[in-house]
């Protein structure tokens, strides 16, 4: 969903209210990885004005947003991704971590590639209190493009 800026931007000016556009692409066409019929396109901007800025799309597995879910039976997260060739981040949030996510970086190039991470690689997390899974651009400031498909949590 796109949130419009409240004021026009002047050249060289950065606002804290950067936006992220998220869209399902390919409804009916082979736009996804491995010929799937759809994928999630995430575009946005990382502000240089903030030291730990991030922007992206988040999934909250709990019954409400940021409520913990016990996914300790899942040991890996895998997904297909492509993008603009810049570094991206997979960020896992857990109640035990407070508001600080555990982060793994990956580079999404122009061709679809499968990525797999063990949940334990995220600061020793066991998935017992997972509150969010975020696919984000950055950490470098500027615009980014990331497209993901077939996100799977598995044993």
Which structural class matches the secondary elements?
mainly beta
Strands of the largest sheet, in order across it? 1-2-9-4-7
Task: Name the average pLDDT.
Answer: 84
Radius of gyration: 16 Å
Count of distinct strands: 9
Largest sheet: 5 strands, antiparallel
How much helix is in the residues? under 10%
Low-confidence stretches: 1-17
Q: In percent, how much strand structure appears in the residues?
A: 35-45%
Listing every helix as H and every strand as E from the N terminus to the C terminus, the arrangement reads EEEEEEEEE
User: What is the tally of helical segments?
Assistant: 0
Distance between the termini: 32 Å
Shape: globular
Q: Can you give a write-up of this model?
A:
It is a single chain. The chain has 155 residues and is mostly beta strands. The protein is 0% helix and 43% strand. It has no helices and 9 strands. The strands form 2 sheets. The protein has a 5-stranded antiparallel beta sheet with strand order 1-2-9-4-7, with no helix packed on it. A 4-stranded antiparallel beta sheet has the order 3-8-5-6, with no helix packed on it. 27% of the residues are buried.
Fill in the keyword field for this structure.
155 residues; mainly beta; four-stranded antiparallel β-sheet; 9 strands; globular
Topology:
Layout: E1 20-25, E2 39-46, E3 56-59, E4 76-83, E5 87-94, E6 102-107, E7 113-118, E8 130-137, E9 142-154
Antiparallel strand pairs: 1-2, 2-9, 3-8, 4-7, 4-9, 5-6, 5-8
